[in-house]
Amino acid sequence: MRIIILISFVLLTPLSFGQQYELTDFFTYDARLEQKVDSVFETLNDSSRVGQMIIPAAGRLGKSQEHLNSLIKRNYIGGILLLNGTKEGFTTMVKDFNTLNKEHNGLPMLYSADAEPSLIGYKIKNCSPVKKANLMVSREEVRKFALSICNDLKDIGINYNYAPVVDMSPNEVISYRAFGNDPDTAQVWSKVFIEETQKQGIVATAKHFPGHGYVIGDTHKKLVYIDGEMKEVKNYIPLINAGVLSIMVAHIAVKNNPEYNTNDLPSSVSKKIVTDLLKNEMNFKGLVVTDAMNMGGVASIPDCELKAAQAGCDLILMPVDEVKALNDIHAETVKDPQFKQQVYASVRKIIRLKICLGLI
Predict the structure, then answer these.
(1) How far is residue 48's CA from residue 218's CA, in Å, rounded to a whole number?
(2) 304 domain residue, yes or no
(3) Closest CA to 211 of 193, 180, 236, 192
(4) Environment class of 254 (CB within 10 Å of its CB; exposed 0-12, middle 13-18, buried 19+)
(5) Which residues are annotated as catalytic?
(6) Tell me: the pLDDT tens digits for 25-57?
(7) Which end of the chain is more exposed for a tag (fewer CB within 10 A), N or C?
(8) What is the CATH number of the domain that holds 261?
(9) Does the residue 354 lie in any domain?
(10) Which domain holds residue 161?
């Protein structure tokens, strides 16, 4: 009888190394999860640790598959943005990348997309049709179309979505990509989109912090400015409280704001915006990702990827030169012990996210 009881106990006791985590566990302290993060972190050398922060793009507007293969073989990247292609093409691409990555003992990849309701039909052709964000009329519609997007992303193997847009709609670049020009609607509908996305096991991203709606101009082409009050920052507070896992920082400068002036530099390379405001004052503990680093609003700044990491960004999206970005960040960690610990904290967050996605 004792033997039977003992066997039953063993079978019903979860094994620590088999513990499964979900996205809802990311912000929760769990000693075994901390241990698992540390054990994975210790398997990486410093180059591959920094590499976890680097996210290049594949597809029509990204780098060639051969170039990305060379980065995967060296464990120099932590994920890939799938940018402009077809659902079928990207599905094949993800399988090929995964096969190569496994052969070279890389950590599983974060596969991301700009799968906003207003852009997915253009960015990934042959996905299910969805309404543009500015045409949605209810929370139910937002939830329905978020689910539809998630189903397509899961078919491809994408686990990270750079959506929703939390900005207001007056800016010509944001326009139909936003849920409108009412802050209450933007907050509530963004929250619904985030909740449904993360419920489906895909990371959601609130963007473009600190706010792209009231600026004049296009950060793809040049540096643009928030003049005075950052009116859209408040849109992020309920989303952070609701557990959004990722926030994208824009290449937008801030002027005529004594507390948050960025001195003619974009927010993405401003410690004042990324660390002091977003991470410390607003208490955001998730992943901070830059907007694309090849955009006109930031690419002309020398060593811009290093500066983004120094500002507190965890993921560096679409560096012009991935190897230079990695080497610059790594070289600075050798010189600056405090920065090294900051980078290590970013890498641990990335590993934690991959565990909570079920990738590790």
Answers:
(1) 34
(2) yes
(3) 236
(4) buried
(5) 220, 291
(6) 999 999 999 999 999 999 999 999 999 999 999
(7) N
(8) 3.20.20.300
(9) no
(10) 53-320
